[in-house]
Amino acid sequence: MKTTLFLLLSGMIIQVWGLSPPQTGIVLDQGLSSEDIEPSNCIKVRLVRSVEIVNENILILRGTHGRYWLNKLRNQCHGLRDDMMLAVHRYGTQICANDRFEAQERTSLSPFTVSCRWGQFEPVVIEQVAVIKRELGNS
What we know:
Elements: E1 2-8, H1 21-28, E2 42-44, E3 48-53, E4 58-63, E5 68-72, E6 84-91, E7 94-96, E8 100-105, E9 114-117, E10 121-124, H2 126-135
Antiparallel strand pairs: 1-6, 2-7, 3-4, 4-5, 5-10, 6-8, 8-9
């Protein structure tokens, strides 16, 4: 059965050109235990509390019990901004890589205008989230 999950987003858009891919890899390798380091293709929706749009390529999901996931979208999602609302299309109880979501301005009555696909969900710790935001320009 297909269901749609609506998530209201808050946060700031961070400039993507502020951090090169090699720096991103270094940041993501820091501070994870061996059982948490592997990306996963799916996460349970009930574990997700909020989503922050970092830029058109990266989302941060905040979960229960202090968990965080970095999601590098499958492709750049042109037009995705931090002031948008997401409609997440999913089947069952999980959000999975390559599942589609759409974004719409919160104040707009128009249909969803930006369509994107999730990438893998990479576990990160709060310190890594802070470094990613700082390195990407947080402005």
